[in-house]
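Q: You know discrete backbone vocabularies at least as well as I do. I have my own habits and do not want them to colour yours. No explanation is needed for now; the record alone will do.
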Amino acid sequence: QVQLVQSGGGLVQAGDSLRLSCTASGDSFSSYTMGWFRQTTGNEREFVAVIRASGGHTYYGDPVKGRFTVSRDNSKKTVYLQMNNLKPEDTANYYCAAGRPILSAIRNPEMFHSWGQGTQVTVSS
């Protein structure tokens, strides 16, 4: 498995931008599909975005389409989540994850076996 360490996040105002980073240790980073999920208290983990290992295809949750961009730099073993035009409803604890899910389950957090420590994003109105 891979160890993931997140950075970024914080308190911003509506309309601002933030970039989250997630750096892996260990081998085979380039072979993992990397996902971003978010969670608020009392709710299940919500799919945000994912970037596949092969080809780098990306998929997004409907609430963030057109505002968030996921990317990866395999040479740095890092995946990024660029978040633009943030809204108060984006407030959550954000997690990166690594796994090898099949395409039909790529939005399912249970398909990811390694998780970052989480980072809080708070968007004020």
